[in-house]
Amino acid sequence: MGLFDFDGTLARGDSAVPFTLFCMRRYPKATIVFPWLASLVVPYGLGMVSKKRLKNVMLKILRFVPPAEREKLVEDFHDEVILPKYFNKGLERVAWHKEQGHTLVLATASVDFYMDHIRRHLGFDLLVATRTTIEPVPRVIGPNCYGPEKVKRLQELDLFEQTDWGNSWAYSDHVSDTPIMELCHNRMATTPSRALRRYAQNAGWPIVDWS
Question: In this predicted model, what pLDDT tens digit does every residue of 11-38 receive, in sequence order?
């Protein structure tokens, strides 16, 4: 198996903020949500607002997107914003796993609303992401898929007990993914944050730069 984080691992930077701005540019009426989001930035930085809360407010933008246009919105967001951000070396690693016949899992805290299109574009078998619903009100369902929650979500899958974790691989740029990386015998810190770099150095994990 090959487990890949997305933001900062396969593509440069975060995807949530660019998605929010992309939606607002395409649907100007959605900018009514911006002051609400802006008011949460400082409390979020201070740990007073959860990631789930922030995502719930972000998703309110989708109320201004007609249902018939949502799929096209996601496709255009990917092609115009995400596509130029892919790390070529990361894509090469994905291709290597496909050649080996490995099951590929995209494990990300980003919302499934747009991540499922990215999963299909990259040819991944499964997506583990923050679950959302659009109707009747756009919102997050269940916990934010972050840190240990990624492991819990994997454990819900039938393949968890069938996987040879001793021959599996995990890739991430962020220290929050150490729980999921430690599931696999083969771990790789890719273009890592300072915290993950220190962790990987202490643990003896390979460190690579995909930028």
Answer: 999 999 999 999 999 999 999 999 999 9
Q: How distant, in Å, are the alpha carbons of 35, 42, 78, 172, 198 from that of 61?
A: 12, 20, 17, 29, 38
DSSP letter string over 26-93?
Answer: H-GGGGGGHHHHHHHHHHHHTTSS-HHHHHHHHHGGGGGS-GGGHHHHHHHHIIIIIGGGB-HHHHHH
Instruction: Report the share of the chain in percent with pLDDT over 70.
Output: 100
**105 bridge partner residues:** 3, 126
- pTM for the whole thing? 0.96
Q: Which CATH number fits domain 2-208: 3.20.20.60, 3.30.450.40, 3.20.20.70, 3.40.50.1000?
A: 3.40.50.1000
Per-residue DSSP letter, 116: H
Query: Residue 165 is encoded by which pair of tokens?
Result: 């974790």
- For the chain, the helix, strand and coil percentages under 3-state DSSP, each to the nearest 5: 55, 15, 30
Tens-place pLDDT, residues 37-79: 999 989 988 999 999 999 999 999 999 999 999 999 999 999 9
If we measure between CA atoms, which residue out of 198, 63, 199, 68 comes closest to residue 133?
A: 63
